[in-house]
Design brief:
Pfam families: GrpE (PF01025). The chain has helices at residues 2-6, 12-71, 78-98; strands at residues 101-104, 116-124, 133-138, 140-143, 146-149, 151-158. It is α+β, with helices and mostly antiparallel strands. It folds into two domains: 1-99, Hemagglutinin Ectodomain, Chain B, CATH 3.90.20; 102-160, Head domain of nucleotide exchange factor GrpE (Nucleotide Exchange Factor Grpe, Chain A, domain 2), CATH 2.30.22.10. The radius of gyration is 33 Å and the shape is elongated. The relative contact order is 0.09.
């Protein structure tokens, strides 16, 4: 009689098969999810390389023009050299603008700590000018509302 107790009952077989089926489904779903994670990570990495390559392609002509301008710096005609460098700067500005980058150049504007970094104060007697940007030491940049480099500025302060 004790041998019959250890034998699986016919009614238990469908339940055990269902458990095995669910375990197999779980393992397949987990493997699919892990494969999806790997594929997504690979696609993100590929997209980042693509974006970087496109940005570099925009820099290459500017770099080449700058090298040409430097090569002609020793020539006697400095006006042409200066015009060449100004052209390269214009190319940079156009490329930045085409990529949604805005220049932060706050000269004579009220100091804005969200976009400006005060590196120095300059005392002034005119109270209306207090907390106004006196000088831009380094231009700032932003894309949309996100500041990617704050403008470094000198700010007017009250004369003591």
């Amino acid at each position: 009689m004790s041998d019959k107790k250890n034998l699986p009952k016919e009614e238990d077989k469908p339940q055990k098969e269902a458990v095995v089926d669910f375990e197999n489904l779980y393992k397949r779903a987990l493997a699919d999810y892990q494969n999806l994670q790997k594929q997504t990570a690979k696609e993100k990495e590929e997209f980042a390389r693509y974006v970087k390559a496109n940005l570099i392609l925009e820099f290459i002509p500017i770099y080449e023009h700058l090298k040409t301008a430097i090569a002609h710096a020793d020539e006697k005609n400095h006006d042409q050299w200066l015009a060449g460098v100004q052209y390269v700067i214009k190319q940079f500005e156009d490329m930045l603008a085409n990529n949604g980058v805005e220049v932060i150049n706050p000269l004579n504007e009220p100091f804005n700590p969200a976009e400006h970094e005060a590196v120095e104060k300059e005392e002034i007697e005119d109270e209306k000018q207090v907390n106004t940007v006196a000088k831009v030491v380094k231009t700032g940049y932003k894309i949309g509302d996100k500041v990617i480099q704050a403008a470094k500025v000198v700010v007017y302060s009250e004369k003591k």
